[in-house]
Amino acid sequence: MLLSSLSGVSSIIKKVEDAATFVCPPFDVISDPEPYYERSPFNAVRLELPLPAEGADAYDAAARTLDTWLSGQILSLDGRETIYTYEQEFTLQGRTRRRRGIIPLVRLDRQRIFTHEETRKEAREDRERLARRLKTFTSLVFAMYEDPSGEIEGLVEGARKEEIYDFVDDLSLRNRFSRMTDASEMAGLAAAMGARHLYIADGHHRLSVAFKLGLSHVPVYLTDMHAEGIAILPYHRAVLLKEKRGREEIISALEPYFTLSGAALSSEAGLNELVDACSSSPTLSFLLYFNGKKPSLSMLTQKKALLFDPGSPEIMRRLKVNAIHRGVLTHLLGVKDEEISFLNSPEEARRLVNEGRYDFALFVPATSVEEVKAIAENGLFMPPKSTYFYPKILTGLVFYKYG
Question: Assuming Cys at both sites, which of 52, 129, 383, 399 could form a disulfide with 9, CB separation 3.0 to 4.6 Å?
């Protein structure tokens, strides 16, 4: 059986009255943990992205916090094995969506679990040190399955459940978190999932650590990859060159391969619409933004094939984010990885270029779920920060203590 019920460690509402103050995003999208520290003495950031304390490094400080919360009943073992359900309601581009998923224990099996992203050594070692010190997974792996018939979501929708949380977070997302209560319904759900393949959306570092630790199972948030709640946003590239080059030099390197046209920009919504146009274009397109006496935004549309990474599979060379990251930035412009920063908000990237903190920005098209699946099934890896699955799975709803 690929999945089974779990017994998690969850917060007790009578101790933490407002669940929204307890949760935080996963570690890799927290640029500054201090606001979450200030939000509540019980915010999950103290376990997810701990800061050193007096006489303790960050990992020991997290261990002290976990022990204190357990002994003080801020956290408590959920005494019943269950499969949790988690629904996020959000608005994206003026449209309200709901992403529904389940959180069971998933058996680790490299033949059935497919990844699409390489892990970074520093982040991997950090997550391993934290997991070893706490014997706890503080945040969840996020994976997708295929279910064209909608059988699994139908079983979850009709199952008997007990609500644990229902709150609106600081991004105005509604979060509904419950536990299934009927053992036969959980068994039926596990049977329906069977031996389906799982495609990792987020949490590659956590999954890598679980394999290294030799764990047999880890908790995973699972959702249907073709459901209407799946949204993949792009990470945009902001570049700060160590050896400065003028706008004309950069454009001249691109002109043999791309047609440049001016793009009018009237608002943040307009910028998002231009990015969407790049995403839906059958031809490789992206936006290039410079600041200066006269800020400029240009749309670039490919007119000649880019010859880069000749030994790489065709599927990788066709992947838009790869063609832009490795073909344009690395191959044509000679930009080094350490000169690139990744930003989810195009407006933030534009602002930082305007402030002179970066030389220029590339606004890239979104990666599709079909591309994620194809890359994963072929055992390939996308460039760093190729996908931003929105919204993130919140940390602090449930922890998994494995030892």
Answer: 399
> CB under 8 Å to 329, separation ≥6 — which residues?
237, 239, 335, 340, 362
Pair type for strands 296-302 and 236-239: unpaired
Backbone φ and ψ for 80, nearest 5 degrees, come out as: -110, 135
Range of the domain at 356: 235-365
Amino acid at 255: E
The model's pLDDT over 260-272, given as tens digits with 9 standing for 90+, comes to 998 876 655 588 8
d(CA 247, CA 254): 11
| Residue 370 forms part of a structural domain | no
* Neighbour tally for 129: CB within 10 Å: 15
H helices present in 6-137, as ranges: 19-22, 34-39, 45-48, 58-71, 121-134
Q: 10 Å Cβ neighbour count for 149?
A: 9
| Helix/strand/coil for 23 | coil
Together in a domain, 114 and 8: yes
Q: Report DSSP state, residue 382.
A: B
**Residues 183 and 263 both lie in one domain:** no
> Both 396 and 294 in a single domain?
no
Question: How sure is the predictor about 1, in pLDDT bands with cuts at 50, 70 and 90?
Answer: very low
- The CATH number of the domain where 136 resides is what? 3.90.1530.10
Q: Are 302 and 278 in the same domain? A: yes
Residue 195 lies in a domain: yes
